[in-house]
Write a structure and sequence with these properties.
2 strands
């Protein structure tokens, strides 16, 4: 039971970050492979403003999210959009986001140093007994936010004019542009929201492990795996993918050792790709590769 509970909680962390991939894929059919560095960016921005005692913790987190959102929108405008000009088979955006990842990693390392730095902002101390398993309040906060963020995104996509525009743009950007909607603006807003979620994940995760330039890289593979398992075109997908990946990894680690935990999760990804390439909750779609 301990492995089950801890797996679900861990899956919530992966699911929250996986939404960053799902959002950009749904709208622009692209992925930002610098998401890990946006995790670190959010954590370090919050560390910078942590000394502002007049600012409440919620506002400090909001500053980190906002900065990451602005950088994310700029990344789409200048590093993704210009390399999408040759149709669905143009993958230069992939290389540009990988390059952005290395640039951001070097900048953050040069400015803040490679060592982890303790973060107290938005940190909950103590643990709670859940079905006999001791789970830290910080982990529960992250898992709970994964559910809340997912529900908000689903409701916004289906019940608001902005969500309608996003879905229309994802299905037929040429037609929506003829109706006065700017696919460029929609993409920038989507990247801003997605990178803001990555920064939020980083801030809360840093309160547990400390802020470091490589902290996002530790989550990147698992989060991509979760997005793939659930389905890159489904907003509900990360929750299901995170639960399956987290539980399977924790159970395998508990039964066979830590090395088998990550291996079991990646074997799940392979099985899903073979059996249902579009993901468990997504409908088949064409990928820009």
């Amino acid at each position: 039971m301990d492995a089950l509970v801890l797996g679900l909680v861990l899956g919530g962390l992966y699911a929250l970050l996986a939404q960053s991939f799902v959002l950009t894929f749904i709208t622009t059919k692209t992925l930002n492979f610098a998401v890990g560095e946006f995790v670190a960016l959010g954590a370090f921005i919050v560390l910078v403003v942590a000394g502002w005692s007049w600012l409440p913790d919620v506002a400090k987190v909001a500053v980190g999210v906002l900065v990451a959102a602005v950088v994310g929108a700029a990344a789409y405008r200048f590093l993704v959009l210009p390399f999408m000009t040759e149709g669905e088979h143009d993958v230069r955006w992939l290389l540009s986001t990988v390059a952005l990842s290395f640039v951001m990693l070097n900048l953050i390392t040069n400015v803040e140093g490679p060592s982890p730095q303790r973060s107290e902002t938005a940190r909950l101390t103590g643990s709670i007994d859940v079905l006999g398993a001791g789970v830290s309040k910080q982990q529960l906060l992250i898992a709970g936010l994964a559910v809340v963020v997912t529900v908000l995104l689903v409701v916004a996509s289906k019940k608001t004019p902005a969500g309608l525009v996003m879905r229309a743009t994802s299905q037929d950007p040429e037609t929506t542009s003829l109706m006065g909607v700017s696919p460029r603006l929609v993409g920038m807003v989507t990247y801003a929201v997605a990178m803001g979620i990555a920064a939020l994940t980083g801030t809360l995760y840093a309160a547990t492990v400390g802020a470091s330039p490589v902290m996002g890289g530790q989550l990147l593979v698992a989060s991509i795996a979760v997005a793939v398992v659930g389905g890159l075109s489904s907003l509900w997908g990360p929750l299901l993918g995170g639960a399956l990946y987290g539980v399977l990894s924790e159970v395998a680690s508990y039964e066979f050792g830590a090395i088998w935990g990550e291996t079991a999760g990646l074997l799940l990804v392979i099985a899903v790709l073979v059996w249902r390439p579009q993901g468990l909750l997504a409908r088949r779609t064409e990928v820009k590769l």
